[in-house]
Structures are given as structure tokens and as C-alpha cells.
Known about the structure:
Layout: E1 2-7, H1 10-20, E2 27-32, E3 42-43, H2 51-60, E4 65-68, H3 71-75, H4 78-84, E5 92-94, H5 98-105, H6 107-116, E6 124-128, H7 132-141, E7 146-150, E8 159-162, H8 165-176, E9 187-191, E10 197-205, E11 210-212, E12 217-218, E13 221-223, E14 227-230, E15 235-238, H9 245-265, E16 272-281, E17 284-291, H10 299-302, H11 310-319, E18 333-340, E19 364-367, E20 370-373, E21 376-379, E22 383-391, H12 394-407, H13 424-427
Parallel strand pairs: 1-2, 1-4, 2-3, 4-5
Antiparallel strand pairs: 6-9, 7-8, 7-9, 10-11, 10-16, 12-15, 13-14, 15-18, 16-17, 18-22, 19-22, 20-21
Helix pairs in contact: 5-6, 7-8
Bound molecules: adenosine monophosphate (AMP) and glycine (GLY).
Amino acid sequence: MNILVIGSGGREHAISWKIAQSDKVENLYVAPGNAGTSNVATNVEIGVNDFEKLGAFALENAIDLVVVGPEEPLVKGIADYFKADENLKNIKLVGPNKEGAQLEGSKDFSKEFMFRHNIPTAGYKTFTREELEEGKAYLASAKAPYVLKADGLAAGKGVIITESLEEAQESLTDMLAHAKFGDASSRVVIEEFLDGIELSVFVLTDGKSYVTLPEAKDYKRIGEGDTGLNTGGMGALSPVPFADETFMQKIDEKVVKPTIDGLKKDEIDYVGFIFFGLIKVGEEPLVIEYNVRMGDPETEVVMPRIKSDFVDALVAAADGTLDTVEVAFEEQSASTVMLVSGGYPEAYEKGYEITGLDKVENVIPFHAGTKLVDGKIVNVGGRVIAVSALGENIKEALEKSKKAAEVISWQNYNYRKDIGFDLLPLLD
Ligand code: AMP
Ligand code: GLY
């Protein structure tokens, strides 16, 4: 088969690394990819939202299967674009259509969906531009901390959590009246604050049945001890020690099944991944958000834990025959530690040569913001390399990731040395 993966992050490197292990693959392409994906696939210089060029490339290269990594092309309708074209419609595509992608593309849509289908989530109310004063009054009558979410995609920056009523009201004004996140904040969801521990659960679905992939926990803050600014994710672990069988079953019954059934009831034809951002409050799982893609850096621990040929599962999802496929998982634990550019998530410098990649052992360095320039691998993004490892347990995996994180380096690079700090006591 000829396969095209769309995206350029650590997630897409991990997905293409896994796909490349299948003997069903003839040609594997990644658009646009990074320096790491070029080790397992052929990079194609086409942006993730350039549907016309992606479609033309797929035809010219007899692509059989397209796997869409990031949310933006999905929310913009890449699946619908392929479906609507006579020549492209028979290419298998893993990724929901525009309607399904609203689960991530609109917080208001996803909250309505959860309430309609009795899926546990925080209470909320949505306000439009015209309702700014009502929104401010609602905040005044609510309890701190206040949670405000821009309705649309805001590159992971659209959530504001504050203890201060004044700040919450100012943020609401910035979002609604001053279009802080452009159109994405023309509506704002104000949500009840949930106190608990978070985890990420993933399924691959053909819209009827689903396969639950290994769960993971990611570490979003830049600073050790979960302090400082939010990032795209600084590291991840799988399995999650507190997600025992009973809890995972509860997630399946109360969250995953009702979501798949809800999609069916709403007649949303959903093919692709669903990422459940969950929070465990007491013994109960509640949904914080849906994403219509895999997580990053979670994918960098999920893919190494899949034993089976992943291409079989992807094809079956696209074909609507997922119930015929068994997916086996690795008993071993996985960790990833994200090496980031100094200064990230604020301003950082690019173009430094990355060294040490050829000296690390027993790890899989998944590339994110890297590029091959004049034969050298340089940093071109904030998150640069996710150093993944497998081990008999999480501690062993983490030791491998951390050891390699010292060896790979470039000017001013940074990483968290404490990934897993909150979970390790659970393992003693
Ligand atoms: P989201 O983009 O919806 O995932 O939100 C980003 C982060 O904000 C989440 O990963 C949580 O850490 C936090 N968060 C979002 N909603 C809530 C909530 N209702 N209560 C507590 N924390 C939240
Ligand atoms: N790691 C969280 C995300 O991918 O959204």
C-alpha cells in the first residue's frame, strides 16, 4: 500500500514510525514531515491545510490510505474535500469529517453533545458577543476558580483558569468584545472547575465499533512540579498507574460507549481517533475535552506500546470493519521526555544544530520541531525531540528517556527532569 500521513510533529513521526514497521507498506509519505520522519518515510513539501495539493499528490502517487495527524485540517474539512471529489473519494482516509471534527472544533458543540448523551462533564453556559454583560453577571454569581474557554480552535491557548473574578471578567471581555482569539472567541464557554487528576484515553473508531488504545498521562506545564506556563506537553507516560481495570471499565461504560452511541444517534459518520481528555474526580471520570486526533506527546508513548500491525487497524477503521481486527498491546511501560528550545513556550531561538542523536541507545527519539538544513539537523520549533523509551516499568522507561535527554543537546535546550514525579510514589 501507499500511505500518506499528514502533519509534522512528534505525533506524526511516531505514527509513521509505527506504520513503517508494517510489511503492507510499499511507499510511505509524510506531508510536510520533519527531519525525523525522513528516516522512516519520504517527506513531501505540502502544508497540512493545502487540500488541493494534498489531493493532487495522493492521485499522482496512487495513495491508498491517508492518515490525518492534526486537528486543523480536520476541522477545516479535509475528509469532506476528499469525499466530494470523484477521483479522491475512494482513497481511504482516517480522520473525521467537518461535522465530527466539531467535537474539538467547537467547545459549545461538544458540551451540548455530552449533555445530550449523558456523558459526565463539568456544568457550563455559553455566551456570545451580544451576551457579554450576562456573562459577566454569570461569573459574579459563580464560584472561583473560573474556567473560560474560547469556543473554537485557539492552538491550545484558548482556556483561561483564574481565581480572580476581576480577571475572569476582563478575559471574557477580551475574548468576546475584543476578539482575543479572533473568531474562535466569538463564543465563550464558562465552565465549572473540576478538581482531580487528568489522563488521556484514545480510541480508533469506524463509527460503529472501536479499539481502545493504551491510555497516557501528559505533563503540560513548563516547570518542574507542574508549575509555570502551559505548553503543548513536556512528557508523557503509559500506562497510567491510577487507571486500573475498574476505572478503565468505568470510562468505557460512562464515557466511550455513550460517545460512540451518541455519534450514531446524531448520524455523524465518524472515522478516526477520539482523544478523551479526562479528569478523575473522586472515583468518577469526567470529560474535560474531546480531541478528534491523537495527543502529542501521548502518541509518542502510545505507538511504542502497540504490538500489532497498525496498518491493519487503520485500514479497517477506514473500511468500517474494525470489529474484525484484534489489536495487541505491549506489556512494557513507555515514557517520553520532551526536549524543548530554551525560552519555550515563550520566544525562543531557532536554527541551532542538534547533536548526540547518533549516541543514544535504547530510546526512540521522535522528532517534532526539527529540520534538515545543509545536512545538519536543527531546531525549528518549540518542542523539538520527544525521547521515548520502553521499560519493564515506568521507572525503567523514564531512566532511559532521561539518560538520553542528557546526551542529545543544542544551545539553550531544556527539558523536565521530573516527568512522572506525581505517579512514582504510587508505584513503590
Ligand atoms: P482544554 O483545552 O479544554 O483541554 O483545557 C486545557 C487544560 O485546562 C486542561 O488540560 C485542564 O488542565 C484545564 N481545564 C480545562 N477545563 C477544566 C475544568 N473544567 N476544570 C479544571 N481544569 C480544567
Ligand atoms: N497533549 C495534549 C494534546 O495533544 O492536546
